[in-house]
Design goal:
The protein is of the alpha/beta class and 320 residues long. It folds into two domains: 140 residues, 3-Layer(aba) Sandwich (Rossmann fold); 158 residues, HUPs (Rossmann fold, 3-Layer(aba) Sandwich), CATH 3.40.50. Helix content is 33%, strand content 18%. β4, α4 and β5 form a beta-alpha-beta unit. The longest helix is centred in the N-terminal third of the chain and has 17 residues.
Length: 320
């Protein structure tokens, strides 16, 4: 079971932010958590994209937030969040990311929910600078939500979770959280391991280009066995889990698999076997967050955990 008391929704009134709000409302209701709705007034924002509404400022922003969460008002969400505990906050800072991170630390936030594209760079297919910095530096897990044509009129449907693993301790933490989320939503899990088929220049070997399949022909079968054992040994609700093994470049393969499987949510650590334990997002996680269509739940193995994560024996941390 997830221990979540406070969820922070970073809101900037963009269309992407409104879509992320639906997830924040639904999660707060399911987890019986207090929802903090934060608006950061930076006064240094770039011009809006033509399809974005004008940003309210000051007390007007606070009033807009209240109206949008009030079921008696003409809110863009058709579902009633119920007796949700909501705290409205407004802060002024030179940069929105810093305002979000400071608020998260000061209020012991357990989970941050935000859109990947805000008022700046709405039309660019790149991870927004604010979302990128928050995912990089947040002391807690972050749920990022990409833009959608319109705001959902019902609670988000999460039926299938994709969990990429590389057999590191970081990946184990992601699976523990994925099991808890799957239990919360009544969803299933697709556990994916991508085999990086490294090809070395001829002068590294005997004059023949080498693949990991040359050294270990049954690598895929062994990987499936390790995945199944990982599922059995990882605590959490008894949810349906299907294992997948495929060769390729991890970042691209994860995005392709999410599309092929129709994943509703990707759960992953920002660092794996090649990660450095500092507050920087790994290149694989960054690519997935900015490229995959569904929301992405990211966490750091050295940050706040929402579910107790057992420490594996050192031998279990070795790759296949």
């Amino acid at each position: 079971m997830m221990h979540v008391r406070h969820i922070l929704m970073a809101r900037d009134f963009s269309s992407c932010s409104e879509h992320a709000l639906a997830y924040a409302l639904d999660l707060a209701r399911r987890m019986d958590a207090t929802l903090h709705v934060l608006y950061a007034d930076t006064r240094h924002d770039a011009l809006l994209a033509p399809d974005e509404p004008q940003m309210p400022v000051g007390e007007k922003a606070r009033d807009v937030i209240r109206r949008l969460l009030d079921p008696d008002e003409a809110a863009p969400l058709a579902f009633d969040p119920g007796d949700l505990r909501v705290e409205h906050a407004m802060t002024r800072d030179v940069a929105p990311a810093r305002a979000i991170l400071d608020y998260a630390r000061e209020h012991d936030i357990d989970l941050i929910v935000m859109g990947t594209h805000g008022r700046r760079g709405v039309r660019r297919m790149l991870l927004g600078s604010v979302a990128r910095e928050v995912v990089q530096r947040a002391p807690c897990p972050v749920l990022t939500v990409r833009p959608r044509p319109r705001t959902p009129s019902a609670p988000p449907s999460v039926e299938r979770l994709l969990v990429p693993v590389d057999f590191s301790a970081h990946a184990r933490a992601a699976l523990v959280h994925a099991k808890a989320l799957a239990g919360l939503y009544g969803a299933s899990i697709d556990l994916l391991h991508v085999i990086e088929e490294y090809v070395h220049p001829a002068f590294y070997t005997t004059g023949i280009y080498a693949s990991i399949y040359d050294a270990t022909p049954d690598i895929e079968q062994k990987s499936r066995e390790v995945l199944r054992r990982l599922v059995e040994e990882t605590p959490g609700p008894d949810v349906p889990v299907t294992v997948h093994v495929r060769p390729g470049r991890a970042a691209d393969a994860i995005v392709q698999e999410a599309e092929a499987l129709g994943s509703d949510l990707v759960v992953m650590s920002t660092h794996g076997l090649t990660g450095l334990e500092h507050f920087l997002i790994g290149s694989v996680a960054e690519h997935v967050v900015q490229s995959v269509e569904c929301p992405v739940f990211t966490l750091k193995a050295f940050g706040k955990m929402l579910v107790p994560v057992p420490q594996p024996h050192p031998a279990e941390q070795e790759p296949v």
